[in-house]
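User: Here's a chain of 555 residues. Predict its fold as tokens.
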Amino acid sequence: MKTTTLLSILAACAVGTEAFSLSSFFQQQILSPQVAKVSEEASNEFGLAAYLDSAKELPNEVRSAWEQMQQKLPKNEIEKLVATYQSKYSVKAKNFNNRIKDFSKTFTASTSQQDQFETLSNDKFAEYSLRVNKNKPELLGLDNVKQYTGYLDVDVLDKHFFYWFFESRNDPKNDPVILWLNGGPGCSSATGLFFELGPSSINATLQPEFNPYSWNSNASVIFLDQPVGVGYSYTGGDQVKDTAAAARDVYVFLELFFQKFSKFAKNDFHIAGESYAGHYIPSFASEIINNADRSFELTSVLIGNGITDSLIQNSAYKPMACGEGGYKPVLSEEQCDQMEKDYPKCATLTKICYQFQSALTCVPAQYYCDAKLFSPYAETGLNPYDIRKPCADEGGNCYVEMDYIDDYLNLDSVKAAVGASNIDIFTSCDSTVFNNFILSGDESKPFQQYVAELLEHDIPVLLYAGDKDFICNWLGNHYWSDALDYVEHEQFEAAPLQPWISREGRIAGEVKNYKKFTFVRVYDAGHMVPYDQPENSLDMVNRWIQGDYSFGYKK
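Assistant: Prediction complete.
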């Protein structure tokens, strides 16, 4: 999700509510040195007036949006804005004072780092190294396949990325390898592992429950906590603040991973993920194919309910909320009419963001579009990830099961088994990472151009979307895929949506395909498709990795 939290789903974490000087905050985090040096006079209590006066080259629409933020943020409106973001991403502060403590010392956390890990390096990436945990995570009982955990380390920057690798239940020697990424920005891929597509889920008693529809049924799957600071990943200082900066780390991780696990290096390799991974995956895939000396090949990418082209996807909030997406209206006619009127300014600001791609131009676009197009839905109290349901508040997010995951991954025995015993508290989503990305303007920036690049390099692309999600809904993904500017745009746009018939003979959704570009609407699924439709999602993945890009439809 584009979102998420402690639920981690797809998405995102929280905007902090602590008091701060907005003028100082914006100058330090956003403004300097984007357009001009901020003068001391600009640091008045309410922020940006002097700065805006000095930045004459800013488009009027951006100046207007900043002025609205200046007027609203300093006083009572700051709480409303924070509430909007928290609602959008289902984020609430977690209370760790009552965390379950595990005193059963099945594993000892006293093992030294040197004894617990095997380390691998490569002169080509001198600042990086890969650690492989010598303990056996299989003893946790999640699956009976071989598993490996460890870290990608960048010691000079004190950055450490956690991974958990499950071999295929079928034929690991020959089956494809899938890298899975959750979104946020700032959310752990433990959401995918334990809530959606992994070998086991975690129940209320903090015990694993076997998942017969795990994606490692016919593929080996890597779950990576990135960017640094997410989940079991940690940093002593250096932080990643946008998708572009994250891409290099993921590429080097894959290079070292396939060096260590060389028996998988020639297998088909796919990158899959959801929500904010609609940013990550296109960028990371572009990084891979533009490194000509890579030691592995990218076979395809799969993006579920992603946020990739915000300009077009923002236009889908109104129809999805107002009965045009296959579900009944959840807003009044007046609200729907107002959203229709507000979208043009959102589009104007987003186009400016696309043109300049800076925090100064992109933060106002996100602020305005969220306030005008997402907030009306958020105020209904409905689940942003499933329009059919209220957002249950039991666990501080819309899914109480996400709390089980956090509690489980904070058990001392689990940390020791996977080699994360140096982690104080595991959280599904990290607010620092989220804030860094949001305040860099990363969310509103365009990423669809990387998808076009992949297709023009003959890399297959699957976009799939549960049709009951709101936040990254299927209409928006349908719209932007039809509009994608690439060499075979006209042929793809003209292709009809066809019924997707599962292998069990049931109608599972709709599919649109032209050659190696496919869009799938998944019926009766929310933001996390494998959670809502586990059997159909496995059918979808198995067909895709076997090269059935049209899902059985014969032209």
